[in-house]
Amino acid sequence: MKLLDERIWALFKRHWKYTLTYWSVFFSFGLCIAFLGPTVLDLRCQTHSSLQQITWVFFSQQFFLLVGSSLGGLFKKTLLSSLWTLFSCSLIISLVFSIIPLCNHVSLLSVAMAIAGLAMGVIDTISNLQLVKLYQRDSAIFLQALHFFIGVGALVSPLVADPFLSDDSCVLGSNWTLNSSSASDLGHLRNSLVGQGGAIANISQYPLHTEGVVITRVSYAFWIIALINLPVPAAVLALMCHERLLPCSSTGTRLIERADSQATPFEDSDEGYQSFFYCCNLAKLRGRPATFFLLHALGGAVVFITDGIIGSYAGFVYTYAVSPPLLMGHRTAGYLDSTFWASITVGRLAFIYLSYRYSAPRLLTVSLLGVILVQCLLMIFYTSCVFLFIGTCVLGLCISSVFPSMLAFTEDILDYKGCATMVLVTSASTGEMLLQLIIGSVIDSQGSYSFLLCCTVTSFISFCLFLLLLFVQRHHRNGQTDPSPGMDLKEKPQPGGS
Questions:
Q1: Among 23-32, 198-207, 338-347, 371-380, whose mean pLDDT is lowest?
Q2: For residues 196 and 119, what is the distance between their CA atoms, to the nearest angstrom?
Q3: How far apart (Å, rounded) are the C-alpha atoms in residues 347 and 404?
Q4: At what angle do helices 79-99 and 106-135 cross, to 10 degrees?
Q5: Residue 309 to residue 3: CA distance in whole angstroms
Q6: Is the dihedral of CA 260, 261, 264, 267 positive or negative?
Q7: Residue 481: per-residue pLDDT
């Protein structure tokens, strides 16, 4: 039995250059999103800042990632502008990594990470938009592969950084002796800060000097990552040269039009493929049925919660593991975050094939039910360290495919207008930032066990919203088959029609 039928394989061969380019750019996204956490203590030493000050760098990156996701569609007016933007953003990521070792103040570091976050958000939006537009009804399998490359980049970053991280304090006091923080304390701090620095209230009791001679080799890690990332903008530029899409080419306009016409099976304007704020334009939304708005809202709400769970689990599972009743060792608990991201990466690799075999609604149903089940079991066996590792693996496998499957499903319902992609990407970025803050506040006030309770409750809510989405989708389809005069629906051409 063939893994892929001839039609899917023919589509990939037709668009393989563009597809591999978008996948490689998402590798840059993964490199950038996972590199800050492990290196944050060395960056604290480099910038002579406190833990409270350095955690603003996390917020700076996340906030501007959200801004970039919201505005990314502005750069997708044509294929040429999309590729130029992807080239610029991936190159900016390399440049930011190369100048971070030169940032000797926390405000400069925050600006650098804000620029990187903005580039990441634009990459997130444009890559998803282009793949959806390119493959439309067959986009699910290629979106799973796209998000798999985030996991690959996120796994590579910590491996590169680890040899250059300080085992002891990286600031020597005026008497040239190490400060009072032991290597085990620093390991605990580093693991606590890996997930966006959410546990800052629980670790501020550790004394860390800000004045003295900085002894750190983390600069080499950033320069190596900058070099690893350089082939990505080079690949984008090579694609533009090969396809003669550069402005200096006399035939560039004609080739852009040809590429865009090949990318979309149905005749399609770029009307829907703008920024998030353009998609909210009242003039463009007038006359739409209520189900149109509900589908966007429900799809965005589901990924808001699931991406928020991913960020919260990665951010707080270490804190939960080292707290009562588990009291797991710092070194052992430090593997939980890596285990979670590795299982997400493996899950997305597996769902590349499963997306070809099964429909998106079926995969989403199984995935969301699996997330609920494993979190209920984690609450039942909350005293078992072994089951925490098992549950972390299964949770990563189940939740890994929710965003790409939901994106493909929602765009399919709404006939690939593009605004669904904008809404879902922006909602996912917002959820990853806000849900961590909410759950972190609950953990600080109610204790570590509330971490599992919050994740379980939000999982139930996401599944209920998904069921409501299926109900609304049925009514929306029925409305499409019997349109009213004011709905201004566009009839899709039938296969083989004139």
A1: 198-207
A2: 18
A3: 12
A4: 150
A5: 32
A6: positive
A7: 62
**Burial class of residue 459 in the structure, from the number of CB atoms within 10 Å of its CB (0-12 exposed, 13-18 middle, 19+ buried):** buried
The span from the CA of 101 to the CA of 125, in Å, is: 29
* Structure-derived torsion over alpha carbons of residues 130, 131, 132, 136, reported in degrees to the nearest 10: 120
**What is the per-residue pLDDT for 251?**
47
Distance CA 119, CA 353 (A): 30
| 8 Å CB contact between 404 and 23 | no
* Strands 213-214 and 171-172, sheet pairing: antiparallel
Condensed to tens digits (0 to 9), the pLDDT of residues 178-235 reads: 444 555 666 666 666 665 444 444 444 455 555 556 677 889 999 999 999 999 999 9
Work out whether the CA dihedral 416, 418, 424, 429 comes out positive or negative: positive
pLDDT in tens, 446-497: 887 888 999 999 999 999 999 999 999 988 887 766 544 444 444 444 334 4
440's tokens: 């972190």
One-letter amino acid at 399 equals I
